[in-house]
C-alpha cells in the first residue's frame, strides 16, 4: 500500500446517488464495500462527510437565515450522513467509531484527538461528524484539520469527477485533466479544489490532496495502492 493512514473526504451530495435529495442506500453500500476492500489491505481510514444532500448552510443564509444557525443545522446533517455510512460499514463487517465535534453522547463519542488516533491504530474506521464544531467553516476545512491532527498521509477527496480539470468538465467539453499539480499552480490558475481555508491548511502542513471519482467501483483501491488516477496536488 502506498499510504499507512488516509483521510477520505466525501461530499454529502455524493450520497444522493441518482436521487435529488437524501441518501441512496445503494450508493452508500458501494462506498462501504470499496472502503472495506482497502481497509482489509491494512490501510487506516478516517472519513469526513458533508451534509449538502440534506441541508446547506450557505444556501439557507442566502434565503435570510442567520449564518451561524444555518451552519449548525448543516453540521447536524453531516451527523445523519455519518450514521448512515457507519451502519453500512458495520453491515460489511467493519468496526467503526463515530466522533463528533458537537457532543451527542447517545449516538457517538466526542472528538478527542488521541482517542481518534487510538481507534485507527486498533483497526477501526473513524468517522468525524459535525464538521469542526464551529460555524463559518466547511466540511472541507474539517477534513483538512482532522487529517493534520491524526497525521494522515494524504487527503483523498472523492467526487463525481475523476480529477482536477482546466475548466468544469461537465460544462466545457475541451477541459483537460491534470494528473499532478502543485498547490501554487492551483492558486495561480484559480482552480476549485477545496475551499481556501482547507487548501491552505493542507499546503502549510504538507498534506497532499488527491481528487478522484469515488463513484467508480474500485477507484479507491487504485488510489490506495498508488495507481496514478485522479489528480495529485502537492
TrEMBL record:
Aspartate/glutamate/uridylate kinase domain sequence ranges: 4-213
Reported regulation of activity: Inhibited by UTP.
Gene3D superfamilies: Acetylglutamate kinase-like
Top EC group: transferase
GO molecular function ontology, one term from the record: UMP kinase activity
Binding of ATP, residues: 9-12, 52, 56, 159, 165, 168
InterPro entries: AceGlu_kinase-like_sf, Asp/Glu/Uridylate_kinase, Uridylate_kinase, Uridylate_kinase_bac
Binding-site positions, UMP: 51, 71, 132-139
Main localization (coarse): cytoplasm
Keywords in alphabetical order: ATP-binding, Cytoplasm, Kinase, Nucleotide-binding, Pyrimidine biosynthesis, Transferase
Cell compartment(s), UniProt: Cytoplasm
Keyword Secreted: no
Pathway(s) served: Pyrimidine metabolism; CTP biosynthesis via de novo pathway; UDP from UMP (UMPK route): step 1/1
HAMAP family registered for this protein in UniProt: PyrH_B
Role played: Catalyzes the reversible phosphorylation of UMP to UDP.
Matching NCBIfam families: pyrH_bact (TIGR02075)
Family label: Belongs to the UMP kinase family.
UniProt-recorded name of the protein: Uridylate kinase
Provenance organism: Pedobacter punctiformis
Taxonomic classification: Bacteria, Pseudomonadati, Bacteroidota, Sphingobacteriia, Sphingobacteriales
Gene: pyrH
